[in-house]
Prior knowledge:
Blueprint: E1 2-5, H1 14-24, E2 29-37, E3 42-50, H2 57-61, E4 66-70, E5 91-93, E6 96-98, E7 104-108, H3 115-127, E8 132-134, H4 155-164, E9 169-173, H5 177-189, E10 195-200, H6 208-216, E11 222-225, H7 232-245, E12 250-254, H8 274-280, E13 285-287, H9 289-293, H10 305-315, E14 320-324, H11 345-374
Parallel strand pairs: 7-14, 8-9, 9-10, 10-11, 11-12, 12-13, 13-14
Antiparallel strand pairs: 1-3, 1-4, 2-3, 5-6
The structure holds phosphoenolpyruvate and manganese (II) ion.
Amino acid sequence: MIIILKPHIGRNSPEFQQILDVLRNKRNITTRIHEEIGSQQTLTEIYLIGDTALLDRNEIESLPGVERVVRVSEEYRILGRHHDDRRPTGFDYNGVRFSQDSLNVFAGLCAVDTPEHVERMMQALRDNGQVCTRMGAYKPRTNPYAFQGHGRECLPWVFELAGKYGIKVIAMEITHDSHLDEIREALQRTGNPTGVMLQIGTRNTQNFELLKIVGRQRELPVLLKRGFGITLEESLNAAEYLASAGNRNVVFGLRGMKTNMGDPHRNFVDFAHVPVVKRLTRMPVCVDPSHSVGSRDRAPDGLLDIQHVTAQGIIAGANMVLVDFHPAPQKALVDGPQALLLDELPLFLEDVAIAREAYDKRQTLARNFAAREKK
Ligand code: PEP
Ligand code: MN
């Protein structure tokens, strides 16, 4: 059970003490306090753990200072969407809104290579009104002899270039807790010219110790990719690890499943799960068409498979798109064959806007139908 307090009621208020006094008299109940610090106000929630089935919800809801009480199911206690749960679905980070209603495109390099390529990418983004990107500095590779990413060395100049072109958020994968320290240090040293969304890749979805460490910090939001060979439930539990450690600013990423059933695509596209994740949890959902499809193959209708699956994700309500671009894919050190070209960026963005408009219309259609049924 979660007790959500009224916006102005915090830890030090008499109402808070009174609620705790009432709870102290209940048997087998322990409490955990969570404070969500926003720019305008701090929201306080009291998590009740133990024999909550016996508690009278109305009694608790009638206490002063209580906004409402949510009965949680066992699963995804913090990130889950529970019965009668109207809590907000998103967060703001560095001036960018992430929620189950928003849509942000993160076009960028799979792997940072040269300052020239990074700068050309950032410039193209700015010229097309974009404020988010993806930039891989730490690359987990199948082959130990393959390029592993420039690591900490590239962080200062990548962050400075991002600042120069007005980029607010960079999605950047980390595979070890030292990478988190390196990113924070580099952001600080360069004077925070941009923000970073930490990415946990599909190979680390169930790296629980990494999840706990990343979850303990609340400064940087997290994009958690679905594990490529585990169930959706297992991946959603991995997201809950981040939240239970303290960080609930989590975006859930679909990137395709590893099975030959998806051939000739690199992974079996799983974007049909966009609405499922939005129904089960309050996380914004990201789709990664590049790592799903893995090539620049084009359908006879003239559209790339990457464009087709992007549109499929967006028309189903996706809130974020992580997509590989490169100014010179033949020179890319990682995943060149799936990169889109810089002059394809306006086309890609327009295609995204068309799919989003269709999604908006579909939502309106469903709402109007439901309103008519009610009458
Ligand atoms: C990536 O986004 O660069 C990446 C490696 O993705 P994934 O973890 O989904 O394979
Ligand atoms: Mn890649």
